[in-house]
Amino acid sequence: MKVTNAEFTISAVGPNQYPTDQKVEIALSGRSNVGKSSFINRLIQRKSLARTSSKPGKTQTLNFYHINDLFYFVDVPGYGYAKVSKKEREKWGKMIEEYITTRENLELVLILVDFRHEPSTEDVQMREFLEYYEIPYRIIMTKCDKIPRGKWNKHVSQIRKAFGKPPEELFLTFSSETGEGVEKAWEWIESIVLE
Ligand code: GDP
User: Fold this and answer.
1) In this predicted structure, what is the pLDDT of residue 89?
2) What pLDDT is recorded for position 90?
């Protein structure tokens, strides 16, 4: 898809702030610093529409980016390193849960994990949660440029195993540095937003 228009819409702290124009939403989940902002920026070919930051987990909001007046990327940041109290974390967990289980516009969740590491417990739980609620998901393995190609298969099978071996076609090796995986990611997105 050629992106001609990409706009940050809102950092929502609750459902009353979510967009009301009934466009398809594609959410990105994953721990801070995994490369969510870089993923969005690479796909839409903007340097910094989605804020990339080296300070993880500051803001606990759902960030909506409106693409081509057609759909939203929803950045779901914050689990993992977030330096927040237990109470805040619970509140955040509830907000994510509510968004994912009740939001009718949500049609796909991309779980981003670092290709170099085992997925976190939260990543694994997120997949189980999505499976349970029958929400389509894909697993994007970011920063693949940091691993030599000869080791890719090994990393894919380790990550796949940690997730409980979902079908291999749900996984994508991706790099916002080299552009690896960009076409496939767009195929997935287009098959949903252009259907
Ligand atoms: P977010 O917190 O999930 O939004 O993560 P960011 O997109 O801000 O990325 C965190 C850091 O990882 C930044 O320094 C990025 O430049 C770097 N990064 C993100 N994606 C990649 C990638 O595919 N390859 C490499 N080498 N670095 C990446």
Assistant:
1) 74
2) 79
CB of 57 closer than 6 A to ligand 1?
Answer: no
Query: Which of 44-76 are b and which e, b meaning 16 or more Cβ less than 10 Å from the residue's Cβ?
Result: beeeebbebeeeebeebbbbbbbbeeebbbbbb
Residue 164: other Cβ atoms inside 10 A: 10
Span from the CA of 78 to the centroid of ligand 1 (angstroms): 15
Q: Is the CB of residue 93 less than 8 Å from the CB of residue 73?
A: no
Element housing 106 (H / E) = strand 106-114
pLDDT lower than 50: segments of the chain: 53-57, 81
Residue of 11, 28, 29, 33 with the most ligand 1 atoms within 8 Å of its CB, for mutation: 33
